[in-house]
Write a structure and sequence with these properties.
- By secondary structure, the chain is mainly alpha-helical.
- 60% of the residues lie in helices and 0% in strands.
Length: 86
């Protein structure tokens, strides 16, 4: 599973590869410099989906949705687990 830390690392690497400063990235993405700094540092608990998408696009990255690997609980599994707790 890709988490926000992995996404942040990829954003930072892509930004540096393009020789962009955090301020330049923020300007191109239309977000605050603070948003870029906090996202790259992994300090933003909820960076906002739209902001992340804008930042990804500004450094030439894309977000892809794929089927989760097996082993993750289904809705039915979660319901059954909840019933057992009662």
């Amino acid at each position: 599973m890709t988490d926000i830390i992995e996404i942040a690392e990829q954003i930072r690497a892509a930004r540096k590869q393009r020789k962009m400063t955090q301020a330049q990235l923020a300007d191109v993405a239309g977000v605050s410099r603070r948003s870029v700094i906090e996202l790259e540092a992994g300090r933003s608990p909820d960076p906002g989906f739209i902001s992340v998408i804008r930042i990804l696009r500004a450094v030439g990255l894309d977000l892809r949705i794929t089927q989760a690997t097996s082993g993750r609980p289904t809705y039915e599994d979660l319901l059954a687990e909840k019933e057992l707790e009662r």
